[in-house]
Design brief:
The structure is a homodimer of 215-residue chains.
Chain A lengths: L16 H17 L6 H7 L4 H7 L3 H25 L3 H14 L3 H15 L3 H26 L3 H32 L8 H22 L1
């Protein structure tokens, strides 16, 4: 995975506020019935639109997944631009990851992520969207690592792409775990897993900061 | 999560060889179309049976998930009984986890796990099955940790339940990641993530073996 791949990521131009509003309206139906369980009729109804009109905004379910992913990406981009511009980028990254792990809303993201991950394994068009999104997040992380270590892009990608992948997996695993706890209700005890995940992420980042100390 | 909860896990008695054979026949359809996308008609057809006859084996899709999970659990139980009886249980656990992470078949498990995890967040009956299975795996891990550290059950559960949960998350995350790489084809490079996941699991287990050295 090379840093330049981030540039091959085709981002839709300025999604309209109306599409955004529709996404908010259909999100619970999409998460509740699943990619295959929710029909375009169900989704149009949730958006309060005729099926014909709904298709003008979202021609397919893959288009809906893409819109959901793009919206998440906009937030992630915002976070990373703050990290990269910060005086101490690695400390800022540690802080942002900690906030995300402990965000009570991450259970909702977990439901959608579990759904999108499963759909990606059945639908090549969804797999492409997810892969592009992951490539982009990994590239952002590697950009931070380049900034922090002072090493060359290629060297950082070769050595630390697995570190970036592990961090992404742990953040997503944490969200899906919280979603599962929410689904099971209050009888299911949380047992300190988030704290240990955070410790693992921090120790993974320590390997990057150790390189930086040596340079 | 207490160790005794493992006993509350209701295991179906000796699933028939015929059910086992049906599971093998429907597994690709179930994984390919998804929990909601595969109808009971699709599944009966995949098994070469009439719908009426199929319902006698599996009265619902949740029953199919349960049967898949129970079959996986039988393998997991076998592995853990070997670990617990081994002269050096922690070394044996490290070895078995390493084999599982690097097993080429784990991509197939990843597809089913992604599907079952997503379905669990929409269907309470699936959530219960997944939670019981996780409780059982965590209890087995904690039993190994008790054996290794010489600490009391309650102490081990309090201190090391997060470690067990993290290991389960990493093993599952690795399988789902491999499934995703398979879905994307050979253009998608693997980049050493499994090796880093293995290192993280081993260092998580080091915390247990360090306790054991002190006792």
């Amino acid at each position: 995975m090379s840093l330049s791949e981030v540039n091959s990521f085709s981002r839709p131009q300025n999604p309209s506020p109306r599409s955004d509003e529709i996404l908010d309206m259909i999100r619970p139906t999409f998460a509740g019935k699943g990619f295959d369980g929710a029909s375009m009729q169900d989704l149009a109804r949730a958006a309060g639109m005729s099926v014909g009109n709904f298709y003008r905004y979202f021609p397919s379910k893959a288009a809906i997944v893409e819109a959901i992913v793009m919206r998440d990406m906009a937030h992630i981009e915002q976070d990373f631009s703050e990290v990269i511009l910060a005086p101490a980028p690695l400390s800022e990254l540690r802080l942002k990851l900690s906030q995300r792990l402990n965000d009570p809303n991450c259970a909702q993201d977990g439901v959608l992520w579990a759904e999108i991950s499963a759909a990606a394994l059945r639908k090549p068009e969804v797999a492409q969207i997810v892969a592009q999104m992951e490539t982009m997040v990994l590239s952002y992380l590697l950009t931070v690592f380049v900034r922090v270590t002072g090493l060359q892009d290629v060297e950082v990608a070769r050595k630390y792409a697995p570190h970036a992948g592990l961090i992404l997996m742990l953040v997503r695993g944490n969200a899906i775990q919280k979603a599962q706890e929410t689904a099971l209700g209050h009888n299911h005890k949380t047992y300190g897993l988030t704290a240990l995940i955070e410790r693992q992420i921090q120790s993974t980042l320590d390997e990057i900061s150790n390189v930086s100390d040596k340079n």
